[in-house]
């Protein structure tokens, strides 16, 4: 969440920032709650101090003071709860370099990399290719689980784990610690990560009876690993690369991409998560994006880097880049990666700090970035690497992880 002191001192900036994200919250009401809380805190502190100095002879006055203190503490606890609930409705503020926009149409294309393939034959979409080579089974998945699910089969499975192994190899060279996190997390952990407000709850799977959430992305599980902990300065940056299955209800996407595995309820992903200092935060963000591009260029998939405008950031992100990969059957780029800095927004909710060189305790900055969203990357490989004879070439960097398979099938 945002620092209440910062809100007090920069109320107009905060108001503009949350409005730029399309969120309507009454800042004046929050400041009023804060003023009442501070005034009441003074009264409570005075009553507590007074309680310490009563003599034995002043037993009646001590009892009256204690009763009043109890009432004021209850009032303060209620006020603190109201203030915290109001603060949780505030999204993170966008960085100054983020463009103010009203929709995804205002996002900025930073650069375009790679050549769009020009086929000398009529290319097929990935579902046609998958059917020919028995790679994806949507029909049977629908019979078992309903819509927006799929079975990966044969070389598609090998492709998934080739991508995972390749991604782990590259990120380990960059100092990332491999991790397989839980995909079920507590309500406290999910709330702390800041994804539930403003419609986020509808996008998640909530097991109310068990008080658990299924994670929609790995950082929702990795971030809370260090909840209520303090890093030493020499431990930072702490970099993780997490493999997990992810679950999303796709509540806001009815009618969109209903066929295939582009937009599904369950998918696997390899995700980077970084804990760092505020001073190194922007540099780490650029490093995450550079690693994503390193992997895409090694796969030789055409892509573009997009810098999201304020309206397309989401609540926790202060700045976000997407990588969109060319999908031939659609004749356009589609999102395959994202890369965000959440500054200290999530760290405040998680109470994750570090000790500075001066011995002060400050909140760390949290960042995340996609290595591979497996299903979408497989789609891009199948379509961009298809050949005239119906085979599908395997990207050279993945062949060592696939038993040196170079081609998928023949028709």
Task: Describe the structure using short key phrases.
BirA Bifunctional Protein, domain 2; 2 domains; 22% strand; 411 residues; three-stranded antiparallel β-sheet; Helix Hairpins; alpha+beta
Question: What is this structure, in a nutshell?
Answer:
The protein has 411 residues and is of the alpha+beta class. It is built from 13 helices and 18 strands. It folds into two domains: 4-87, Orthogonal Bundle (Helix Hairpins); 104-408, Bira Bifunctional Protein, Domain 2 (BirA Bifunctional Protein, domain 2).
Q: How many separate structural domains?
A: 2
Largest sheet: 8 strands, mixed
Query: Which of globular, elongated, flat, extended, rod-shaped describes the shape?
Result: elongated
Q: Share of helix among residues?
A: 25-40%
Secondary-structure-based class equals: alpha+beta
> How many strands?
18
Number of helices: 13
> Any idea of the CATH topology of the largest domain?
BirA Bifunctional Protein, domain 2
Strand arrangement in the largest pleated sheet? 1-11-12-13-16-10-9-4
Q: Please report the first level of CATH classification, the CATH class of the largest domain.
A: Alpha Beta
